[in-house]
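re: the backbone from monday

yeah here it is again, tokenized this time
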């Protein structure tokens, strides 16, 4: 079975980082860097020409920020799928990136296998946030995610397949807790905590714990 590669526009002003990412992607046949840009303006123009499936966008660019470039690309193509790639976590940048229309906010020290998964899921319409950014999104809920309106009774009615314990675990996942931290908080083994998280991911029909946290926030589950 032939797999059609995901076409990627790589936006990064540092040549070493850009070449490194491209080399890593070349090892994975399902990802194809079809265009590169070293600035925000170049990214906007290259998007119009190449029409990639996914844009991997650095924030710190010489002429305009990656967030401003994201806004301009989205203005021209509302269906654009853009992953913000950054070396540091900034509360303001997380919110600005999501308001601009980015589908993902990713730290540059991420494992390449996870980055590959993010590119694939974003291309398919998913949203992805670095686990460190989830608490920011919860606290600064400035219109990116609708206000929580679901009562506990409504939650139980609509998500009765989640157990009380899974609900408790979900709240801790939303807080950005690791399996080990969840285990300590609830006085259970780490293996049990991991099992609960896996069950939650399956029941909420998402791909990972971050998507579970985002869905929980969007639907007012916690």
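seq for it, each position gets an aa:
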């Amino acid at each position: 079975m032939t797999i059609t590669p995901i076409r990627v526009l790589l936006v990064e002003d540092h040549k070493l980082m850009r070449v490194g990412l491209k080399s890593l992607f070349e090892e994975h046949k399902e990802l194809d860097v079809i265009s590169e840009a070293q600035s925000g303006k170049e990214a906007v123009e290259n998007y119009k020409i190449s029409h990639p499936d996914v844009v991997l966008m650095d924030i710190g660019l010489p002429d305009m920020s990656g967030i401003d470039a994201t806004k301009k690309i989205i203005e021209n193509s509302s269906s654009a799928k853009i992953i913000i790639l950054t070396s540091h976590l900034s509360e303001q940048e997380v919110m600005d990136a999501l308001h601009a229309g980015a589908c993902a906010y990713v730290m540059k020290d991420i494992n390449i296998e996870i980055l590959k998964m993010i590119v694939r899921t974003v291309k398919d319409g998913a949203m992805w946030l670095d686990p460190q950014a989830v608490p920011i999104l919860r606290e600064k809920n400035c219109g990116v995610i609708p206000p929580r309106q679901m009562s506990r009774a409504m939650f139980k009615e609509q998500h009765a397949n989640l157990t009380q314990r899974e609900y408790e675990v979900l709240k801790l996942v939303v807080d950005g807790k690791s399996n080990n931290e969840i285990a300590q908080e609830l006085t259970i083994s780490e293996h049990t905590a991991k099992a609960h998280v896996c069950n939650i991911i399956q029941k909420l029909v998402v791909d990972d714990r971050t998507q579970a946290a985002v869905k929980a926030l969007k639907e007012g589950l916690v």
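Residues 6-129 form a domain with the Rossmann fold fold (CATH 3.40.50.2300). The chain is about 50% helix and 15% strand.
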